[in-house]
Amino acid sequence: MPIQTRVQAAGTDVLAAAERLGAEAVAVPVRTGPVAPATPVAGSLPCTLEELLALHRAKGEAGEIVSTTARIGGEPRELLLYGVGEGTPADLRRAGAALARRGRGRTALVAEAPHGDPAAFAEGVLLGAYTFKIGAPPTRAALETLALTGPDTAALDAAATRGTRVAGAAALARDLANTPSVEKGPSWLAGRAEEIAAESGLTVRVRGEKELAEQGFGGLLAVGAGSARPPRLIEMAYPGTGGDRHVVLVGKGITFDTGGLSLKPNEGMKTMKTDMAGGAVVMSVMSALRDLGVRDRVTGLVAAAENMPSGSAMRPGDVITHFGGTTSEVLNTDAEGRLVLADALAYAAAELAPDVVVDVATLTGAAKVALGLRHGALFANDDALAAALTGAGAAAGEPLWRLPLVEDYRQAIESDIADVANIERRGYGGGSIMAALFLREFVGARRWAHLDVAGPGRSTSDDGVLSRGATGFGARLLLAWLTGSPAE
């Protein structure tokens, strides 16, 4: 569901804005120290800001909030002193998220903009305001309006616009992934892609089961064979505005993953509605390209299938012929994401003439074990591309850690009867590396990076800009990369 909170610029005078908007609360930033800020709100207090901060032992840490009452415009209003840490983009996102959560149930909150990047602050506000609920609405509705004041209203307005667009893309990725799989099959996902394309100036092509068979997409067909809901390959295209490169983004779109005949235990299935989070990220990134003025031509591919056990499901020991002719032996039907990605990567490399390919997927539990819940795993066959994506992740607050494509491990995915096996046959370990080596078989000589977001793709609690459930990890990162100068 779209974020309900709106961030807008409201002039230079926080007191006048509070009166004009009838705001129930006013917020003032406090940096680490704390050092009491110079603010016209201070004159409405019975004590100094230094005394107030000392009373609450406030440290100005990002996300910390001290509340008191001030008389502004003749009316009592809540005054929130919100910590912004050192004012880094990460600090401002966390501060904005905390302020949004504190503002739930209110109509308007006026905040003095913090020093630093106001777009990051606006992004944090909107991501902190995100909720997903089916049924009765929350008891406290999201904050309706957060109005920012500061000396440069035009800059604040531009920052609010950019923060809104980036956060909106992340929220769309969360919505798609949070949608229950009883509703969300491959055709549903394709329908949402068509709606997004119509709204965002994109073209879209959806390949159904017949076309996939005719064109040799054996991985998608094999993974989807056990489900009553057949697979789809979704292709979304953005023409760019004169950039030199063609970027292809590929997303894993497993709308539900039981593990197939290699059945997962019940606990392992509870979060599997979000196993298409990589595809959701690709779709959400595509939705924002026009509004953010991305110059490069971008194609988004989502390989969508449902991995179910049945009499028609693929079996361990089966051999699949992927798009382009490479064969793979299925040793575990629960390693299905790489099988559908292989088709999409092979198609991109052979037919779309990309300058660079990036895939994103909740691919392996091994990446989650290695890096936990806050870092995505990055694999790449090009150092400059790896560096650009790592930098974009750091800037966007979606950090990546590069892992190696260990050449000695390649022999572990050799097959006796096919070109490659879908899991390792020897005891090397390193499951996320094995998956990346498998995917590399299908990209040819193209510049390529693989993002395994199995850890950060989901959150178990509200924490900073994250909300419990799908996080949309990768959407803000890829948008930062695509809007950078130059995008590697």
Structural notes for this entry:
The longest helix is centred in the middle third of the chain and has 26 residues, at about 155-180. By secondary structure, this protein is α/β, with parallel strands linked by helices. A hairpin with a 5-residue loop joins β11 and β12 (about 325-330). α4 (about 120-130) runs parallel beside α5 and α13 packs across α15. The protein is built from 15 helices and 19 strands. It has helices spanning about 15-20, 50-55, 90-100, 120-130, 155-180, 185-200, 210-215, 220-225, 265-270, 275-290, 335-350, 365-370, 385-395, 430-440, 475-480; strands at about 5-10, 25-30, 65-70, 75-85, 110, 145-150, 205, 230-240, 245-255, 295-305, 320, 325-330, 355-360, 375-380, 400, 420, 445-450, 460, 470. It is elongated, with a radius of gyration of 24 Å. The mean pLDDT is about 95. About 35% of the residues lie in helices and about 20% in strands. The strands form four sheets. Strands 7-8-10-9-13-17-14-15 form an eight-stranded mixed sheet, with helices on both faces. A six-stranded mixed sheet has the order 1-6-5-2-4-3, sandwiched between helices. A three-stranded mixed sheet has the order 11-12-16.
